[in-house]
Amino acid sequence: MTPNQAASMTFYEREAILLAPFAMRSADSAGREHPEPLHPYRSPYQRDRDRIVHSSAYRRLAHKTQVFTGEKGDYHRTRLTHTLEVASIARTIGRVLRLNEDLIEALALMHDIGHPPFGHAGEDVLNECTAECGGFNHNQQAVRIVTLLEDRYPEFSGLNLTREVLSGQGSRFKSDSTDTIEQSLLEVQVVDAADSIAYDAHDADDALELGLLDLDQLLAIPLWHDAASRVQREYTALNAKQLRRGVIRQLLDTLVTDLVDSTTSRLAAAPIESPAAVIAYGERLVVPSSTVFEQKTQLERFLFDHVYRHPTVLAERSLAGEALRGMFERYSRHPEELPQPSRERLRQTGIPRVVCDYLAGMTDRFALEEAGFKDGE
User: Fold this and answer.
1) Looking at the DSSP assignment, which residues form a beta bridge with residue 162?
2) What secondary structure does DSSP assign to 247-297, as a single string?
3) Topology of domain 44-376, per CATH?
4) What are the pLDDT digits (tens) for 12-62?
5) Which residue from 284, 285, 263, 289 is spatially nearest to 97, judged by alpha carbons?
């Protein structure tokens, strides 16, 4: 194939050549709620990705907490940098498995777009405040944002994303809400797995940088110990920072390689020959090996006990709760103080949900300022 022939190929033709039988092809998309003509050189999932990246909610992720607030420096992840890291890991996995990378990227860039300020602390508070009208879940809020709250097009509310992206995000909410796993496309499963890998590696890295953990504590965890041993066999006389960063790289490589190998074996044994067969299959296919799963579980328990429940993090959660609860009560009593776009939805949607939408869209800094906690005071 000459370069000119490659350049003239449609995305349909490229996908037919490159993607595995079990990958989701653009040609098989269920389309959008509001039909639109095809773009001449962007696939439907590329357009979804671009719409997400250009949305207001996506930009605000830059100033939303991942685990730690921005008061302690600029090294640690924000919700946006975490999202970009998940997208990078997910695309790597998707390419090896010959899945639809454009769909994976759109799903990854959208997956945390519904997070409120202050991370899971903010989510817990908003869920309590809206208990009588259905509660709050960031995965469900992401769907609400891209189908209703984003206002960028005159023809429709939201972003009019493809049904595959919407259902993929919706499956995350359903899995959160039930004891059973919502079966989904392999592209969706890859993003879920990449999210977990990113948490395992990067939350520990941030906690070490901030002094909430000691490196020796993590080196007692099998995953970290094995990764450190590999790094030290290759490099000698590393200082603590060099060792830590080498371990993070090795840990990511170990987790991704194991996931790819395990998933490849499961796909071959099933066998799975179509996206429909993936959805009909009785269990997840994109999963790590049993050994690595146990090691990941041990690491995640350690992070929960020593990072997410660290006194400093809990103190920040308390401040976040005070700020959001106070604002929820204030705006519920005085909805006339809401911005005009929010007030326009009061009659149709009701005060609690409109107030929740407004608060969930805030960045950490703006929320603290609105609540009267200037400079974190």
Assistant:
1) 32
2) HHHHHHHHHHHHHHHHHHHHHHHTT--SHHHHHHSSS-SS---HHHHHHHH
3) Hypothetical protein af1432 (1.10.3210)
4) 999 999 999 999 999 999 999 999 999 999 999 999 999 999 999 999 999
5) 263
